[in-house]
């Protein structure tokens, strides 16, 4: 079983649109949306939820008034000002550090685990999908990403799927680290801007640290040809495979508004063929086929 994780150094590069397009081309795959802080792959996949499960993440303090003596220890120690004058906990300010729980002299503070969101097992027109929704202003997104990927792998094993296609989160933070560890290959989507090339370099460094091979795809390349060439030069210098260029094409926006993938919307354009060629390069790459043989079923439909 192999897993392709599509990531980017920042949001808005077209990562999810390309993931959806690849889903339309892949056979026998399981889809996974690991961008739990701002999940949007479901907007194009229109999943039918088969199973819904609460995600239990961090804890928040709760003072038991019948035991509290009002000694003030918790208020003194709380770095976030979460203990108000009536010795109640402000859930918005509470960061769940647990200091008040550990140092309360009469053990008058509970620390229950909170429900931070939900994760789902769904069916889509392109196969099964695992996705999630993190609650507003909730933390532990890295933990939820790990859970979603674990469930996707288990689902793939149960259904005999040989490929997991994961829409990863942007950036280089905890959710990204949780999304790329143990992946077979990364597809790094870059846009031709100054920040784009900087963000790409950070993502390449992160991938190298975790020893996950990466491949670069330049999206909207024709907005700045000079910067596109600079991105390709940097990728070559860092020994990162180049997948190709995707032009700025309104068909992506039109298909997104219609809730469809690139290959489900409108007539065939040169962009369709370019994306097909990029997908072929991905599934036939040395990273995906270390033995030099394309031996799995994720071929173009």
Largest sheet: 9 strands, mixed
From the N-terminal CA to the C-terminal CA, the straight-line distance is 19 Å
Low-confidence stretches: none
The outline comes out as elongated
Strand composition percent: 15-25%
Report mean pLDDT, rounded to a whole number: 92
Kindly state the number of beta strands.
Answer: 11
| Order of the strands making up the biggest sheet | 3-6-7-2-8-1-9-10-11
Determine the fraction of residues in helical runs and give it as a percent range: 25-40%
Describe the 3D structure.
The structure is a single chain. With 301 residues, the protein is α/β, with parallel strands linked by helices. 34% of the residues lie in helices and 25% in strands. It is built from ten helices and eleven strands. Strands 3-6-7-2-8-1-9-10-11 form a nine-stranded mixed β-sheet, with helices on both faces. It has a two-stranded antiparallel ribbon with strand order 4-5. The chain is elongated.
Topology:
Layout: E1 2-8, H1 15-25, E2 29-33, H2 41-45, E3 48-59, E4 62-63, H3 73-77, H4 99-103, E5 109-110, E6 113-124, E7 127-134, H5 141-159, E8 163-170, H6 174-180, E9 185-190, H7 194-209, E10 214-219, H8 225-237, E11 241-246, H9 250-257, H10 270-283
Parallel strand pairs: 1-8, 1-9, 2-7, 2-8, 9-10, 10-11
Antiparallel strand pairs: 3-6, 4-5, 6-7
Please outline what is shown here.
By secondary structure, this protein is an alpha/beta fold. The protein has helices at 15-25, 41-45, 73-77, 99-103, 141-159, 174-180, 194-209, 225-237, 250-257, 270-283, and strands spanning 2-8, 29-33, 48-59, 62-63, 109-110, 113-124, 127-134, 163-170, 185-190, 214-219, 241-246.
């Amino acid at each position: 079983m192999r897993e392709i994780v599509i990531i980017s150094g920042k949001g808005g590069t077209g990562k999810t649109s390309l993931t959806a397009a690849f889903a339309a081309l892949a056979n026998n795959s399981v889809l996974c949306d690991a961008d739990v802080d701002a999940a949007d792959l479901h907007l194009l996949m229109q999943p039918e939820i088969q199973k819904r499960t609460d995600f239990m993440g961090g804890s928040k303090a709760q003072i038991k008034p019948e035991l509290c003596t009002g000694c003030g220890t918790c208020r003194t120690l709380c770095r976030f000002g979460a203990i108000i004058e009536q010795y109640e906990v402000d859930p918005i300010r509470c960061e769940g550090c647990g200091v008040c729980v550990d140092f309360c002299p009469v053990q008058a503070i509970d620390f229950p685990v909170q429900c931070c969101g939900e994760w789902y097992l769904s069916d889509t027109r392109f196969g099964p999908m695992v996705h999630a929704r993190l609650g507003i202003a909730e933390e532990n997104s890295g933990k939820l990403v790990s859970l979603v990927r674990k469930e996707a792998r288990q689902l793939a094993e149960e259904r005999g799927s040989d490929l997991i296609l994961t829409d990863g989160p942007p950036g280089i933070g905890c959710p990204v680290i949780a999304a790329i560890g143990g992946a077979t290959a990364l597809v790094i989507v870059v846009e031709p801007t100054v920040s784009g090339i900087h963000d790409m370099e950070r993502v390449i460094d992160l991938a190298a640290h975790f020893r996950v091979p990466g491949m670069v795809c330049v999206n909207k390349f024709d907005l700045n040809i000079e910067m596109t060439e600079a991105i390709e030069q940097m990728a070559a210098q860092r020994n990162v495979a180049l997948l190709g260029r995707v032009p700025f094409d309104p068909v992506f926006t039109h298909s997104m508004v219609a809730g469809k993938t690139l290959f489900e919307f409108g007539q065939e354009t040169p962009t369709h063929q370019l994306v097909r060629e990029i997908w072929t390069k991905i599934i036939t790459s040395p990273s995906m086929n270390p033995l030099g043989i394309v031996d799995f079923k994720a071929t173009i439909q």
